[in-house]
Amino acid sequence: MSRVRLTRAQQQAQTRERLLAAAELVFSRLGYGGASIELIASEAGYSKGAVYSNFLSKDALFLELLRVHMDRDFQELEQIVDMSPEGVIREASRWLKSMHSRINLPALTLELQLHARRSPEFANDFYALQEQKFKIIADILTKYFHARGTPLPANAMDLARTIDALTHGLSLQRPLREPGSVNEAGRIIGDLLEIMAAPHALEKKAKTS
C-alpha cells in the first residue's frame, strides 16, 4: 500500500503540532524560564531552524501554546453561554471540576504574567488573550446568577477576573493533580458561586457537613 504524500501545508501544520506538544512537555518539566528553543527542538526531533521557521521566538511559541489551550476552554465556555438557564448551572459546575486536565495551565499562566510585566511587546498579545477569556466568563456568570434568580454580586468583568485569579491561586496551592481527577480549585469556586447565588446555602451547607 503506497504512503499518502503530505502537501507542504500539511507538513508544516504537522511540524507545528509536534513543536507545540514538545513545548508543553518541556515546560511541564522545566517551567517557562528553564525551557529553551534548543530543548524544545530536541524534544520534537527537529533542528532549531525548524522552530524558528514556525515561530518567531520563544515568546511566540509559548503564547501560541497558551492560545491553543485557551481556545479549547473558549469552545467549551461558549457552548455553556448558549445553554438554557438550567444547563448553565449544571455545565458551569462540571467545567470547573474538570478544567486544566491536560496541562499545568495555572503555572504556565503565572510565569507568562510575570514575563508580561517585563516585556511590553509580549504583554499586548498576552493581555488581549486574557481579556477575551474574561469576557466569556463574565457572560457565563451573568447567565448563572440570572438562572439562580439572584443579582450579580459585583460587576461581571470584575467578578470574572476575581474568579480566574482565585482558580489559578488555589490550583497552585496544591500538588499537580492526576489526569482525570477532580479539580479541587474548581470545586471550591463552584461552592463559592453557589453561596453567592443563594446566601442561605452557606447555613444549609454548614448543617449538612
Write a concise synopsis of the structure shown.
With 209 residues, this protein is an all-alpha fold. The protein has 2 domains: 1-55, Homeodomain-like (Arc Repressor Mutant, subunit A); 57-208, Tetracycline Repressor, domain 2 (Orthogonal Bundle), CATH 1.10.357.
How would you sum up this structure, described in words?
- The chain folds into two domains: 1-55, Orthogonal Bundle (Arc Repressor Mutant, subunit A), CATH 1.10.10.60; 57-208, Tetracycline Repressor, domain 2, CATH 1.10.357.
- It is an all-alpha fold and 209 residues long.
- It has ten helices and no strands.
- It has helices spanning 8-34, 37-44, 48-52, 58-81, 85-98, 105-118, 120-147, 156-172, 184-197, 200-208.
- The longest helix is centred in the middle third of the chain and has 28 residues, at 120-147.
Beta-strand content: under 5%
Low-confidence stretches: none
Instruction: List the secondary-structure elements in sequence, H or E.
Output: HHHHHHHHHH
CATH architecture of the largest domain: Orthogonal Bundle
Task: Give the terminus-to-terminus CA distance.
Answer: 63 Å
Question: Globular, elongated, flat, extended or rod-shaped: what is the shape?
Answer: elongated
CATH class of the largest domain: Mainly Alpha
The CATH topology of the largest domain comes to Tetracycline Repressor, domain 2
Taking the sheet with the most strands, its summary is: none
Instruction: Tell me the number of structural domains.
Output: 2
- Radius of gyration, in Å, reads 20 Å
